[in-house]
Structures are given as structure tokens and as C-alpha cells.
Amino acid sequence: MSGFPQDFLWGAASAAYQVEGGHDADGKGPSIWDVFSHLPGTTWQGTNGDIAVDHYHRFREDVALMAEMGMQSYRFSIAWPRLLPTGRGAVNEAGVQFYSDLIDALLEHNIEPMITLYHWDLPQALQDEGGWEARSTAEAFLEYAQLCYDRFGSRVKLWATFNETVVFIGHGYITGSHPPAVQDPARAVQACHHVFVAHALAVNAFRKSGIKGQIGFVNVLQPHTALTDKPEDVAAKDLADAIYTHWLYDPVLKGEYPAQLVAQTQALWGVPRYAPGDDALLKENICDFIGLNYYKRETVAANPDATGLKANHSGERNSGHQFGFKGLYKFVRNPQGVYTDWDWEIWPQGLTDGIMQVKARYGDIPIYITENGLGAKDPIIDGEVVDDARIDYLRMHIDAMESAIAQGADVRGYYPWSFIDLLSWLNGYQKQYGFVYVDHNDNLNRKRKKSFWWYQKVISSNGEQR
Q1: Where are the alpha helices (DSSP H) in 284-387?
Q2: Has 464 been annotated as catalytic?
Q3: Which of 308, 372, 382, 442 is 20 to 30 A (C-alpha) from 1?
Q4: What distance in Å separates the CA atoms of residue 213 and residue 229, rounded to the nearest whole number?
């Protein structure tokens, strides 16, 4: 017997910039990624999303493949500058029509849409005004969200405001590897606050809209393990929990920041700066559900020394540096760990543990696993994409998810990353995640991988066959 509820949603996910292409088609405005990816040295071998996998022109073909695989739901993001080329004001009706047609195509195949409003592609025009450091960007986001509710709300029940704040703020404002390429933790904290304000404004508008659905927030789920039981390593692990989990989950699930951590940022940098009413705004607009993106855990150690911030973007094992901050913590390789080519640990138990930690801290909040997947260089054998490693990875994580459900967690859907091989933001097209292969040497032709047929059976059996 399957351990999954009968109404459990089996889906897959993607993001607009990574699949659509059509970067300037039909009136779309530039996003920060359209600009940043063309700057020298910013991405692997200069790859960008100008064409990506051309989902913008081939979405009907892609939706037909989703239907063939049996997908019950599809999580995708909307490109803000495709609807509002300058971030606010004049609406680009051609962009609205694209998403309207995509939603209709999904519904025609009984595939439930889950919309992510923001998956990192801020309109460049708003970045030029200050981006997320400017409170006006949160107000522009409200205008954008209301447009989406008005045009798509009668057909879409599942909504998420933001995807992975820890990534687009952390890499955008601390490591500087994403746009706007800033390295300033104080600016990061203030930008992050405006994201939470934007989220709360959008949740409030959603609830006033009358849409019969739910709205949530999508966070990275990154459990931490102390390298040793030494007090300094345990303290470093606890600090990592506070920064990577509590700071990002508490504002959207409790309506407040973790008190000890916000006291520290206020003492250090005087941020976040609140506008009148921010406290009430956050408190009154917590999520209906939380989306969890789980790929890996991190092993944490004390960090008395300076640490390099270089990540592995080549797919050559052990080519990255340890990530951390002097005097606080560092992420280290687990001596018992199994790692991917990109130095991400494969640890399925972390999904069970992470889900149960969320339940313990936030109660019986509905949960969707909004991303989970293996980035790999898939082997092609006799013309077939034989991604056995991906099948093994997903099978182990489905087992882990089932275990959390058995322990009482309210997990309602599973959206592996990703439906189709797509552009990895900094890693180009060599890091493959999809059930569908895209041949960049043959007109972007699609090909079903071995995992495509495997997941088809998983879905049709409600998780029993895996």
C-alpha cells in the first residue's frame, strides 16, 4: 500500500528564466539576469537564458510531455518583466497571454498549476531604482502580484510568493555571485526585510482577492549537522540553524524574526530598519503552506580562520572551497558523506529530519516539497539517456518523504527539480536535472530519459511503485 494520501500531488518544477528563452520577445523587458549573465565572467562559459530551452515557443510540446508522464501538477514561475516590462505601470498583454495560454494548456491535461511569483528575475528597471534595498520594490511587487491574481486567479489555486530568499539575497548581497553582485551583509539584511514586506503585502492582497486557493513561501530546507560534539562545533551548527532556517522561516510562518538574531543584526548594523506597521503586517499575513526545496545537508564546524567563498561551478569534484565566515561557522565536507560532482552531499535522511524539524517548530503547517533533485552529467548509452543515478536519488528521497508522512507531517505534494533539463544559473547546461533531455546540438529537441518512464510509474501508482 502507498503511504501517500489519495489527493497527494505528484508534479515537477521549473523557473521562467531557466526554461523560457524569448528574453526580449513580444515586449518583454530585461531582468537583472538578462543583464548580469552577459557580463564577462559571471556564468559558466558565458551561458545565458536568451534562448534557454525555448519553452516560450514550445510550451505546448512540453505540456504534452508532462501529460504523457502523468504529472498532476506543475510548479513554474512567472517572469515579472514579461508582464510589466519596467516592473510597474504599463501591462504587456502579450506576456499575460503567454501565461494564460500555458495555464489553459495545463488544465486541459488535468495538470494543476502552482505559480511562483518571484524566482529571482527582478525587472532591471527596478534594480536601477535600488532593487530589493528600496522599499518601493516591495510596493511594485504588490502591483505585480495583484495583476497576476486578477488575470490568473480564477484558474490557479496554488501560489507561492518567493523562491529561496537565502539564495537570491545571500548570493546577491553577501557572496556577490548573483546580481546585483554586492558583498555587504548589512545591505543583505535590509533587502531581505523588504522581501518579507513584499510577501506580506502580497498575502494580504491574495486574501482580499477572493481567490479560492492557498498562498505560501518557498524556502531552502538545509538541515545542519555539527562536525563533532565539541561545544564550538555545536555552537556553530546552532548559529547556522538560526541564519539559514529560523531567519527565513520565522517571518513567514510566525510573523516575526528570531529575537536573538535580530537583536544581533540591529546591534551590529542597525538593520533591518522597519517602517511603521511592519510588525503588524508580518504578524497578520503568515503563510497557508510552506514549500521546501531540499537538496543537501551541510556539516558545520567552528571557523576561527578566514574562509574562501568559491563554489563548485565546473562539475569537477572537490573544486570548490569551504564556505563560511571567520569567527562564526564554516561548511565542511562530511567524512562519511556521499557527494555529487558539484560537491553536494546526497543524504536522504535529511529530508525526513528537515520536515520533522519544520513541524516541531511551526506546528501542522501544510508542506509541499517544491524542489528536490540530482544535478548530474547524464550518460547517453546507445542513444538513451540512462540516468540511473537520478532514479536512485529520487527513490531514496520519496522514501524519506513517506517516512515523514508516517510520522505525522502534512506533506501534500512532490515537485522534483526539474521537469526538463534547463539552464543552471551559474553552471550552464552541463548540470542536468530533468526527466526530459534537451539536445542543444539538434534544434533543442526533447528526449525522454529513463527517469521519465520510471516517474510515470511512480505517479500512476501514487508512489507505491518505485
Answers
A1: 349-362
A2: no
A3: 372
A4: 45
- Locate the domains of the chain by residue range: 9-296+342-460
Task: Please return the burial class of 441, using the count of CB atoms within 10 Å of its CB with bins 0-12, 13-18 and 19+.
Answer: exposed
- 3-class state of residue 19 by DSSP: helix
Element (H, E) at 399: helix 388-406
What are the pLDDT digits (tens) for 110-157?
A: 999 999 999 999 999 999 999 999 999 999 999 999 999 999 999 999
Candidates 20, 112, 298, 371; catalytic one: 371
Question: SS3 for 216?
Answer: strand
Q: How far apart are CA 203 and CA 217, in angstroms?
A: 10
- The residue assigned the cell 508542506 is 367
Rounded Cα gap, residues 394 and 432, in angstroms: 14
pTM, 2 dp: 0.96
pLDDT tens figures, 231-286: 999 999 999 999 999 999 999 999 999 999 999 999 999 999 999 999 999 999 99
CB atoms within 10 A of CB 337: 16
Cell of 162: 518567493
Q: Dig out the grid coordinates for 405 from the structure.
A: 508522512
How many helices and strands in the chain, by DSSP H and E? 16, 16
